[in-house]
Amino acid sequence: MKRLLKYIISIILICVPAYIVYTGLVDFVTPPATNHPADQKKIVPQTTPTPSPKIELLPIKIITASKEITINAEIADNEQKRQYGLMNRKAMAKDHGMLFIYDKERVMTFWMKNTLIPLDVIFINSDKKIVSTETMPPCKADPCTEYSSVKLAKYGLEVNAGFVKENGITVGNAAVFELTNTK
After folding, report:
1. pTM of the model
2. What is the distance between the alpha carbons of residues 119 and 164, in angstroms, rounded to a whole number?
3. Is residue 106 within 8 Å of 94, Cβ to Cβ?
4. Angle (CA) 83 106 68, round 5°
5. What is the CATH number of the domain that holds 114?
6. Tens digit of pLDDT for each residue in 110-130?
7. Residue 153 resides in a domain
8. How far, in Å, CA of 27 to CA of 63, rounded?
9. 156 lies in a domain?
10. Residue 183 is assigned to a structural domain of this protein
11. 145: pLDDT strictly greater than 80
12. Which helix (H) or strand (E) holds 22?
């Protein structure tokens, strides 16, 4: 009888939670509304979002005094995409990045919560000129450091850390890209 009771309890302990998860009766992950710490409720997703099978990349050219550099950027043009950004990525190709797009210029603030790789962020205004850059190491413990644009910016372009210095990217350089069908 004891064995039967243990068997029934183990079945219940396994099957009931599985049923709850399978049917979606409980929402275990509630994504935060924005990527900006000032606007955040500090809710952190517990799972890695699954990227879409076909990620469209936007070529962005940065024109420096000595060369043109092309970055193939994923687009983050809505709150959910901006919130997740490059969280939980273990690596990123050398010439890739993510372009965060906002409706209007503002002082942008980024942080590195759940971001595993160090990044540079290039802040770009509505005239597509670079207004400032920051290097952002991963955040290992709360509270995470915030990184803000020095001037108003409409776009934030995240690339691998060291990319800005390695390519001689400076304030005033132009960013050339054309947006179509964002959001």
Report:
1. 0.70
2. 10
3. no
4. 80
5. 2.60.120.1140
6. 999 999 999 999 999 999 999
7. yes
8. 46
9. yes
10. no
11. yes
12. helix 2-23
